[in-house]
Structure formats: C-alpha cells, structure tokens
Amino acid sequence: GENVEQHPSTLSVQEGDSAVIKCTYSDSASNYFPWYKQELGKRPQLIIDIRSNVGEKKDQRIAVTLNKTAKHFSLHITETQPEDSAVYFCAASITNRDDKIIFGKGTRLHILP
Amino acid sequence: ETGVTQTPRHLVMGMTNKKSLKCEQHLGHNAMYWYKQSAKKPLELMFVYNFKEQTENNSVPSRFSPECPNSSHLFLHLHTLQPEDSALYLCASSSRGRDTEAFFGQGTRLTVV
C-alpha cells in the first residue's frame, strides 16, 4: 500500500524567512496530493493541494511542487508569519479508485520572532 | 464548522467498558474515514467507507468495530480497549472522485483507564 514519508519532523524558521517541507510517496498511481495545517487544539484543514497533471501550484505565500518521476512533493511557505506556526501534514491519494488518504507524520513548524 | 460533527468531544472509559463514537456529516459526501491521532503516529488511517461499504481496514484490532448505516453517519464501537488506545479519534468525509478534499471533525479525545 501507499507509504508517505515527511521531513523534517520539526522546523524552526525566523519570521519573514521561507520554510520548506518535503514528502515522498511510494505508490506511483497516487494522483492527488493535499497539504493540511493543524493548529494547536484544532482539526486538520486543507491549505493547498496539487494533482498529478500539474508540476507546481501557488496560492499567495504558499506553493507546492510535485516531481512525479522522483515521487516527491514539497510545500513552500514564503515570508513566514507567526500564524504559520502549526503542524503541517502532507498526504497522497488515488482518486477514483479507493480514495483512501494516507498522511505523512507531520512537521511541527515554529516561527521565531 | 466544517460540516462534520463528532460526539462526544471527550470520553474516559475503563478497559472493560463498551462505548461508541459518532460522526455525522451533512455535506453530501459519500466517503467517510476514521483516523487515530497520537504522539507516535500523528494521522493513522483506520477505516474507510465508500458508499457505506468498508473499503479499508488498516490492520486495526477487533476491539475497534466500525459501522456505517448510511452515507451521513459513521460510528466506531469500542470494547475492551487498552490504555495505549488513548488518543484523538478523528472522523473525516470527502466526495469520492475528483474533489477529494477531506473535511475533518473536531475529534473525540479518548482516555482509557
């Protein structure tokens, strides 16, 4: 079955700097890659996603890249702000098959003042 | 609110008790999931239901028994649990197919004593 690896497990970044979180997946059939943000005491919420027919997607300060050949994808946050502090999860899924969403182990992002 | 409601929010049970967790969604989704969130495995997939049919049982012990009577409701029946089963149990739902964003409930914080 699908296995998603995520690195690093913890990341501290100075406010205003960029943060990068990387994930790899094992099942080449995976075609949907969402990223979720979980703030302390709250539920995970989707912040951005990318499908396998696209190599990059941007939404304001957040961007995701996908390398299908290497089976890895990354989240980039630019101009980080205190409210970016949270746990971020990457995930992989195969739409129109079983739709099970397999998550990485999460990255705890700390934005330092 | 994401449209996915879980009850109860907190549950303390003894190892010999039987209890049930409930999840309800009114988003018109046809896939529902149970995830276990703990310090060791932050978002571990337990069960997936598509159109009320169980499509995934991720090697979960039989002391956890899911039930999906219709596309809007999902239960997790618990019996003879162990202290290591203490965790946050998150329910999620999505539309099978292209728009597979998963919406999470707020979770049930379970403590087994």
Write up what this structure looks like.
The complex is a heterodimer of chains A (113) and B (113). In chain A, the strands form 2 sheets. In chain A, strands 2, 4, 5, 9, 10 and 11 form a 6-stranded mixed sheet that branches. A 5-stranded antiparallel sheet of chain A has the order 1-3-8-7-6, with no helix packed on it. Chain A has no helices and 11 strands. With 113 residues, chain A is mostly beta strands. In chain A, strand 6 (56-59) and strand 7 (62-67) form a beta hairpin. Chain A is 0% helix and 56% strand. Chain B is 0% helix and 57% strand. The radius of gyration of chain B is 13 Å and the shape is globular. Chain B contains no helices and 11 strands. In chain B, the strands form 2 sheets. In chain B, strands 2, 4, 5, 6, 9, 10 and 11 form a 7-stranded mixed sheet that branches. Chain B starts with a strand and ends with a strand. Chain B has strands at 4-7, 10-13, 18-25, 31-37, 44-50, 53-57, 64-70, 73-79, 87-94, 103-104, 108-112. The A-B interface holds A 32, 34, 42-46, 49, 87, 89, 93, 95-96, 98-103, 105-106 and B 2, 31, 33, 35, 41-43, 45, 48, 50, 55-56, 90, 92, 94, 96-98, 100-102, 104-107.
Structural descriptors:
A: 113 residues, mainly beta, six-stranded mixed beta sheet, five-stranded antiparallel beta sheet, 11 strands, globular, B: 113 residues, four-stranded antiparallel beta sheet
In brief, what are we looking at here?
The complex is a heterodimer of chains A (113) and B (113). Chain A has 113 residues and is mostly beta strands.
